[in-house]
Design goal:
Number of domains: 1
Largest sheet: 6 strands, mixed
Radius of gyration: 16 Å
Low-confidence stretches: 108-112
Order of helices and strands: EHHEHHEEEE
Shape: elongated
Mean pLDDT: 81
Strand content: 15-25%
Structural class: alpha+beta
Distance between the termini: 37 Å
Length: 112
């Protein structure tokens, strides 16, 4: 499990990170899905070998590496935090990461 700031996530996801509008909608809905392409998942891996490995893994019904995020990772977005609740592989080898808003910490300790 790792904890990333929004800017750290942007560096990991490459040229198409989630926009301000995406995060605003995610905060309002308290959930969202971050999608990344196969190129981001593969990183520096040899494309042909990675594609063959992905096809073989699918044929066997196996799951591949998570890519840049894993279940349980946390992304801090300003005063909000999201947890990655799953990892789904796409047909093209990319990943979808469903995220959910973490309940905000209650710093206001009220005495009754």
């Amino acid at each position: 499990m790792k904890r990333l700031t929004r800017s750290e996530l942007t560096a990991v996801l490459g040229p198409h990170p989630p926009s301000d509008a995406f995060w605003n909608r995610a905060i309002d809905a308290e959930r969202a899905v971050i999608g990344v392409s196969a190129e981001v998942v593969e990183g520096e891996a040899d494309g042909e070998n990675a594609e063959q490995a992905r096809r073989n893994r699918r044929r066997r019904g196996g799951r591949g590496p998570d890519g840049p995020l894993s279940t349980g990772d946390i992304v801090d977005v300003g005063a909000h935090a999201f947890v990655v609740v799953g990892v789904e592989e796409t047909r093209s080898g990319g990943r979808r990461y469903p995220i959910e808003l973490v309940e905000p910490r209650r710093d206001d300790r009220r005495s009754g």
